[in-house]
Specification:
12 helices, 341 residues, eight-stranded parallel beta barrel, TIM Barrel
């Protein structure tokens, strides 16, 4: 029903407006008694064979919602009803920021893709924490970044503020230095600044985890546009800083083979056009590191077969974003049912 009735209507309107409308609609209908139960019964697949233990956390299934969809932690409970094993919020920054000027979100219908140049629009980390305080059992990842006005030489301070503020309210952290929509952010992927940033967060992690004697898992989200040499640097950095894993991949700045009219828009491209490159990066990291660390695979998952391909390439978990928009919530169920087969 989603692909043949709901999606065609949604795709008649501006994608950012549709996103906000959908959030409000889901929030309202879930307040109606019995609706949450119906949604869960339609989309959730509960089976112990789907459970995964990764970087010390127990996931009820390996299919998560990627960062960027629920930036401000407004809908994590309701979204979990659609069968996700975990929800990643953010990217959050220390201070609220409006992001880049509109229009900044574009569908590429002929390519099953999206280009966005949102620019870390969010209400700030403190506001998100107020919502996370009501969490009742949803496994949450906290994706953190820096404010646009913060120069790269002071970026560590922004990441540390987010880390401290979110520490008690998320299950794992994701360090986002790979978005193409914040000026100069990707320069932080270079070996020296990235090592410094991750080492600083790990030191803070040790200090804040002292009473529990267990560090919060820290992952690094990387771009699909890195060269093999840069990916080898990532493997070395993960080893040196002892972070827990990598999310591969973020959006791409490449535009190869696109057909849609919006293909020339600047920003990060997600969806089907990034499927193969994301899988290549996953396979490269898994093979070259001898599977030394967990990988969350994200990028162009539009079917159960796409998800399984990423898992077979070396991913331990997968995340959806654009595929969830194009294929609807049934995609989560399809992947979980396929994994059981």
């Amino acid at each position: 029903m989603y692909k043949f009735l709901i999606r065609p209507i949604f795709f008649l309107f501006d994608p950012e407006r549709v996103h906000h409308f959908t959030f409000k609609f889901i929030k309202i209908i879930n307040k109606i008694p019995g609706v949450s139960f119906i949604i869960k019964s339609l989309y959730q697949v509960n089976d112990p064979r789907l459970e995964r233990e990764v970087f010390g956390l127990k996931f009820k299934n390996p299919v998560g919602l990627a960062a960027g969809f629920d930036k401000d932690a407004r809908l994590f409970t309701e979204l979990s009803n659609y069968g996700f094993g975990f929800i990643e919020i953010g990217t959050l920054t220390p201070k609220p920021q409006p992001g880049n000027p509109k229009k900044r979100l574009f569908r590429l219908k002929e390519d099953n893709g999206i280009i966005n140049r949102m620019g870390f629009n969010n209400g700030g980390v403190e506001e998100a924490v107020q919502r996370l305080k009501s969490n009742k059992g949803v496994l949450i990842g906290g994706n953190i970044g820096k404010n646009k006005v913060t120069p790269n030489e002071k970026a560590v301070d922004d990441y540390e503020i987010c880390f401290r503020t979110l520490f008690d309210y998320v299950d794992y952290f994701v360090v986002n230095v790979s978005s193409p929509n914040t000026p100069n952010l990707r320069e932080l992927q270079d070996k020296e600044p990235l090592t410094k940033l991750l080492a600083s967060l790990q030191q803070l992690n040790k200090e804040m985890s002292a009473s529990e004697n267990r560090l919060k898992p820290v992952l690094l989200k990387i771009a699909p546009d890195l060269t093999d040499e840069q990916l080898m640097d990532i493997i070395e950095i993960v080893k040196d800083t002892k972070i827990d894993g990598v999310i591969a991949t973020n959006t791409t700045i490449a535009r190869d083979g696109l057909k849609s009219a919006n293909k020339t828009e600047t920003g990060g491209l997600s969806g089907k056009p990034v499927t193969n490159r994301s899988t290549e990066v996953i396979r490269f990291l898994a093979e070259k590191s001898n599977k030394a660390f967990p990988i969350i695979g994200v990028g162009g998952i539009h079917s159960a077969a796409d998800a399984i391909e990423k898992l077979e390439a070396g991913a331990d978990l997968v995340q959806l974003y654009t595929g969830f928009i194009y294929e609807g919530p049934k995609l989560v169920k399809d992947i979980n049912k396929a994994l059981l087969k």
